[in-house]
C-alpha cells in the first residue's frame, strides 16, 4: 500500500509537468500559425461576399464536367490499386514482429519519404517524365499512397494475435508460409478498409492535381478559377461533392461487411 501511495505521489507531479509542456507547445504552435479569432471575425463579411459570387452554379458544361469527374475517379482507382499492391510487401518488411530491425528501420524511412512529400510535388515530377495528362496524376497518387498504406498496413500486422502464427510455425512452416497463412488472413479486412478509405481520399486529391496539368476535374476547376467564372467553379465543386459522397456511401457499406 505504501509503495502504491508513493507511486501516486510521483505520477501526479509528472502529469502536471507533461500538461504544462503540452500547453506550452500549443501556445507556441498558435503563435507560429498566426491564429487569430479576432481577424477571422473581422473578415467574415468579406468571406460571405466572396462566397456569394459562386451562386447560382453554372451547369452549362455539365457533360464535360461529368467526363472529367469519371477521369478523376479512374485516377483514384488506379493510383490506389497500384499502391495497395506494392504496399503489401513493404508493410511486411516494415513490421517489427515479422522482419529484422535493420530492415524495419530502412523500409520505414523509405515509407516516410513517400508519405511526407505531397502528391502535387510528385505530379510535377511525373508531368516532366510522361507529359501532361491523367497518367502523371496516377503515378503521383501511387507513390504518395504507397507510403501511407505501407505505414497503416504494417501497424495492422504488428497488432495481430501471435497465436495463429505460432501454431503454423510449430508445424515446421517456412517464414513465407507463416506470413501467408498466419498473418495475411488476420489483416485482410483491415487492409481492405484502409484501402477503401485511401481511395476516397485519392479522388479528392486527384481533383487538385489538375492544377499542375495532371488531368482530371482539377484542370477544369483551375481554368474556371483563373477566368473568374465562379458559377462554373461552384458547379464543378458540387459535382465533386456528389461523387465523393457516393463513393463514401458505397465504400462504407463494403467496410461494414468486412469488419
UniProtKB/TrEMBL annotation:
Bilayer-spanning residue ranges: 12-30, 75-99, 120-143, 179-199, 206-225, 231-250
Cell compartments where the protein resides: Cell membrane
Domain ABC transmembrane type-1: 69-251
Annotated membrane topology: Multi-pass membrane protein
Matching Gene3D superfamilies: MetI-like
Assigned keywords, A-Z: Cell membrane, Membrane, Transmembrane, Transmembrane helix, Transport
Molecular functions per Gene Ontology: ABC-type phosphonate transporter activity
Pfam families assigned to the protein according to its UniProt record, in alphabetical order: BPD_transp_1
This protein's GO CC annotations: plasma membrane
Stored PROSITE patterns: ABC_TM1 (PS50928)
Signal peptide: none
Principal location: membrane
NCBIfam families in the cross-refs: PhnE (TIGR01097)
UniProt cross-references to PANTHER family, sorted A to Z: ABC TRANSPORT SYSTEM PERMEASE PROTEIN P69 (PTHR30043:SF1), PHOSPHONATES TRANSPORT SYSTEM PERMEASE PROTEIN (PTHR30043)
UniProt similarity note: Belongs to the binding-protein-dependent transport system permease family.
Protein name according to UniProt: Phosphonate ABC transporter, permease protein PhnE
Species for this entry: Adonisia turfae CCMR0081
This protein's encoding gene: phnE
